[in-house]
Amino acid sequence: MPQESFFATCPRGLEIMMGEELSQLGATGVTPVDAGVAFFGSRETAMRANLESRLASRILWLRDTGVYTDAQDIYEAALRLPWEQWVSPDLTLRVDTQAHRSPLKSLDFVTLRVKDAICDRFRDRFQKRPSVDTRAPDMRVHVYVTENRYHLYLDTTGDALFKRGLRMEAGLAPLKKNLAAGILRLADWRPGVSLLDPFCGSGTFLVEAAEQALDRAPGLGRTFGFEKLQGWPQDIWRTLKAEAAGRSQPPRPLPLWGYDLKGDALESARHNLTAAGLQDCVQLKQVNFLESSPPAPSGIIVTNPPYGVRMGEQEELARLYPLIGDVLKQRYTNWSAYFFTADRRLTQLIRLKTSRKTPLFNGALECRLFEIRIMAGSHRKT
Predict the structure, then answer these.
(1) Which residues of the chain are modeled with pLDDT < 50?
(2) 201 DSSP assignment
(3) Distance, CA of 277 to CA of 197 (rounded, Å)
(4) Which of 44, 116, 183, 279 is the most buried (most CB within 10 A)?
(5) Sign (positive/negative) of CA torsion 316, 320, 322, 323?
(6) DSSP 8-class letter at 214
(7) Could you write out the DSSP letters of every residue in 11-71?
(8) Are strands 283-286 and 256-260 parallel, antiparallel or unpaired?
(9) Cβ of 146: how many Cβ atoms within 10 Å?
(10) pLDDT tens, 127-161?
């Protein structure tokens, strides 16, 4: 199959890792940029990336790029494209526009003009035009404009990849599945290694770890946008799905534990594990981490600890963080701990030496992943 141009989006901070992942899935010419990775591959490569990537948010198929001076230039470029070769006028449409340092005053106007161009082309050729559906469209077109260039993409994904085909209950600070997968990779967790989330909330880290341990392809239980595109080889797609399903292992008890003080949080985690068919893989326990004991002699702690917005909550956490540090030092020797948080005070208040700080973004919220290696008789800050 011929090589074509694609762009995979991802949470900011995961670009290098996603480039490595895409290379392993057959992509070539991998080029990480801010919040994504450009790459070359066949349509089979793009289908495999949708099915197998744990870090990507979307796989976009580049249809045109060029220079522009105003929105009319982008309209004319979109009008020239042979949309009828890729999609049917019977499908519903949504157009999204993003920009970086673009001189255009209104991105909404660009969105409208690209939508008009696609509809005008179909109406001129078939006396029929696609309907607009912003909630659940059949096809999504993405427009990206910089200072003087436009890029027009067809979305091969549909619903974002982190949705994984499951309706997950979310906590107060929901974590997307692909960001959770990236954090587990940064923590150097591997299937078979003991994993504890002591503030597990809705259990996102645990669900992701269990799926990885069972070698379950993240896109196996869902549909994709490319299934409605013309010219995409459905026989190859059926083969890719069958291969992924064949290697998926049945659920079994795994060295994965989730603690939380709040019973409703544990119920949410239990619901999400059950919805994914993973309820037998993870052990959940309602316990205050400050009174907990490690579930194994060594392992990895990965967690998104509570953080406060209001002043009273911040004061409470300022008292909690040093106590967490004491518990880690006294009871969790030979464990490594990874705290993902937007609270920059954690690294000072927990009073343990941080060996690595990785900037990551949860949506638009800038966060840090702090690594703490807990060794007997060392790393205590005064």
Answers:
(1) 311, 378-382
(2) T
(3) 19
(4) 183
(5) positive
(6) T
(7) -TT-HHHHHHHHHHTT-EEEEEETTEEEEEE-HHHHHHHHHH-SS-SEEEEEEEEEE-SSH
(8) parallel
(9) 14
(10) 999 999 999 999 999 999 999 999 999 999 999 99
Q: What pLDDT does residue 312 have?
A: 58
Q: Domains in the chain, please, with CATH? A: 4-161 (3.30.2130.30), 164-214+249-373 (3.40.50.150)
| Cα–Cα distance, 139 to 114 (Å, whole number) | 14
Q: Residue 378 has what pLDDT?
A: 45
The rounded distance, in Å, linking the Cα atoms of 170 and 191 is 24
Q: What Å distances lie between residue 131 and 55, 123, 137, 195, CA to CA? A: 32, 12, 9, 48
Amino acid 310: pLDDT: 52
Neighbours of 278 (CB within 10 A): 22
- Token pair, residue 366, equals 């800038």
What does the pLDDT read at residue 164? 87
Rg (CA), the chain: 23
Q: How is residue 114 written in tokens?
A: 């690209």
DSSP state of 4: E
Of 297, 6, 305, 306, nearest to 183 (Cα)? 305
- Token reading at 194: 């003991």
Round to whole Å and give the CA distance between 177 and 209.
10
Beta pairing, strands 195-197 & 256-260: parallel
